[in-house]
Amino acid sequence: MNTKQRFACLLGVFIIAYMGTNPPWKEAGPKGLPLEYAPIYAPPIPKRPDAGLEIDFARLLLQIGVTAILTGGLVAAGGEPVARGSEAQIGQENKEGSTARIEGGEEKSGREKSEQDKSARDKSRPEPAKIVAMPGKRIKFPGGKNYGEFLVESDDDDDAWEWFADAEGEVELPRGKPVQLEVTKGSTVDLSFVTLFDADSLHSMDLSETEIKDWELANLKKLTGLKELDLSSTEVTSEVFKYLEGLTGLRKLWLDDTNVDDECVAKVKNLPALQKLSLTNTEVTESGAKELANKLSDCEVVV
Question: Coil, helix or strand for 205?
């Protein structure tokens, strides 16, 4: 469940519990007159004291049933929308402590990620990118799960990415092409499978709009060849820099719409190759932004 679904579910449970403690009452007997709602410990005064009181279970069960149906509808409607730039995504995933087996392969180099291309990509499954038929790195994902999708740099546009393969089952990555792994949006993902990638397996990784936490990024420390990382719209904080310090080749980092604050100023030094740092809609103050700009003179800081 995502945040909206959990809220709808908890709200429904609260309302049903409240109904149970403040039920409708009626005069005792099959034809007893209905009375107002009142707490169990303080029932209402009947119009005919000699008739007695009892809970009107017919009304109570009807109201609980209606509330349960409405809650179910809100939970269903609160599901995550289709992820930008990819087909309908798999919903919430349980953490699975598993790893991947990776064999052979050579270096992947790459260039600028195109945010515009990601949002404009057609929702229907595109044709696989045309690549030279050369042996590449073979990856076997665990558990029969879909972790997202692999993209490769377009032959026609250096700033565009094309769908290559789903990140599930066994995948052979292309040789001599920059590769991006875009993880399923709105999901909780066990990144332990990344630890068996070669250092230069990925040029770019997109973890935006996932439920990733700071400490989980420690799984990326082996990807020293990673050039671009997108953590936008996640719950990461300034502590994330502690887990990224091994990514010495990282050039571009997106942290828009996160909980990063001015504490990142002292920690960003661990990324010496950084050329772009995007921090829009974060907790970074104006003074913090100025300090970052002074410290990262060769880096474009967007706040």
Answer: strand
With b meaning 16 or more CB within 10 Å and e meaning fewer, what string describes 201-229?
Answer: bbbbbbbbbbbbebebbebbbbbebbbbb
CB 192 within 8 Å of CB 98: yes
Phi/psi for 219 (5° steps) reads -65, -15
d(CA 274, CA 251): 4
* Domain residue ranges of the chain, discontinuous segments joined by +: 3-77, 82-198
In angstroms, what CA-CA distances link 189 with 138, 184, 254?
A: 21, 8, 19
Structure tokens at 192: 């332990």
Residue 101 has pLDDT above 60, yes or no: no
Given pLDDT bands bounded at 50, 70 and 90, which one contains residue 17? confident
On whether the CB atoms of residues 214 and 191 are closer than 8 A, the answer is no
The tally of CA atoms less than 13 A away on the side-chain side of residue 41 is 0
Which of the pair, 160 or 32, is modelled with greater confidence?
Answer: 160
**The model's pTM:** 0.54
List phi, psi (to 5°) of 34: -70, 145
